[in-house]
Amino acid sequence: MAQDPIPLQKVTFESTLKSSDTEEKLDILFYRPIGYRIALFCAAVKITPNTVTIISIFFGVAAGILFYYPELWINVIGMLLLVFANSLDSADGQLARMTNNKSRIGRILDGLAGDFWFFSIHVAICLRSQNEGWSAWIWVWGVIAGASHVLQSALGDYYRNVHLFFIKGTDGSELDNSAHLQKEYDQLSWSKNFVKKFMSRSYLNYTKLQENLSPNLQKLLRAVHRKFPNGKMPDALVADFRQQNKPLMRFTNIIQFNTRVIFLFVWLFMNQSWLYFMFDMFVLNAFLIYMNRRQESISKTFYKRISTEA
């Protein structure tokens, strides 16, 4: 049974955050306070988290369109729109926690919102680069950078939720399992639930991608569910996992929104937007590879520990 939402006058800023382990400093100092104010307003006027997410899509896509133009003042407007879109993206999650209105559809929409933003940005940079004299090969770079972004976002999001699962349990994370999602997907009808089934298919593929990229982590999670079916892990195990895994949370932040957007803005000011693709492909993918190997090593260590302990 869902819990009743906390009265707005009792909702603190801290209660709308996921965890200090996974929150980035820029988010804590800038995006989360703005999101908190937006969430309070939306809760007061009964605007739902999913509505906020959908509104953010329009602002984010508009930002990408404005990056097509070479005029810096237009780009700056696009930067402000993208910052506001991300503030809305922060607000939807805070609003969901504030009103206890969390849902899988909301989680899917939240992921799709970012995809729409950056699809718009990639297309704009490709078209802009062609106008500046680049050949059609720039689209190859754009596609590879886009695929890299998908992998980076998928694993960054997954590792955050794994960390939250260990330190806060099932209720404190949004960690999903493809086997469970497959059963839910199979029960939906294309004729009666087309939109929901389409979104469920997309989310199922997304979750399978996350799992396929983390085999040792999957062994660890299966071992945890077998040994602790009630979800209550020993405090010592939780503390040790948190200590070893927490440094990786910095890398999940690096490969997600803030770092990439800061550099995107720098290159727009330099009128060298094509560098964004290079940054995605070579710099952020290097962080991704390191993070993946380190997470797999940690998972292997804890899998052996859980498997051998009485």
UniProtKB/TrEMBL annotation:
Keyword list, A-Z: Membrane, Transmembrane, Transmembrane helix
TM regions (residue ranges): 38-66, 72-88, 108-130, 136-155, 251-268, 274-291
Entry keyword Membrane: yes
Stored InterPro entries: CDP-OH_P_trans, CDP-OH_PTrfase_TM_dom
Protein name stated in the entry: CDP-alcohol phosphatidyltransferase family protein
Provenance organism: Sediminibacterium roseum
